[in-house]
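Supplementary Note 3. Input sequence used for the single-chain structure prediction.
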Amino acid sequence: MLITIWVILVIVGVFDAREYRIPNSLVLLLVVLSFVASFIEPSVIQQGWLLHIAGFVAAFFIGLIFYVLKIMAAGDVKLFGVLGLMLGLIQLPLFAQYLAVSCVFIGGMYWLLNRLELAGQATRVNNSKGNIAHTISIQAYQLKDDFKSRRNLAYMPFAPVLIVALAMYHYFHG
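The predicted structure, written as discrete structure tokens, is reproduced below.
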């Protein structure tokens, strides 16, 4: 894969992590660079264009389902489609395995960070009242209620997860 594509992917990941959005111009630039790279990539020449276009369609529609379920944002769906174009339909199931690992690890870190921030806020409030033991016993019940009511959930940008999964895929199977 061209170094320029990786640079753009890193920019997209940082932009999404900082602002929780992905500019369409960067996604469009990735599509153009993917087409240019496909003329020199041996995998595209061997597999043919049809499988890469099918990879785009499959990844985009899977992302669209997650968008409808409010799991992914629109920019993430477009980026996932571009990654499907880059990898092709045959490579998507293997990429999905790395995506699962990346999602669990990075998602766990975001969730833990959110929990620590909430615990810190609660501790500061209860320290002023002098009741720390009460805070710890309530947190277990609060976690269950938060999931039911969809409060205090950890929202994570998905582009870094996709990019880390792509890096893992290329490291182990590139």
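The chain is about 80% helix and 0% strand. Residues 16 and 147 are 24 Å apart (CA to CA).
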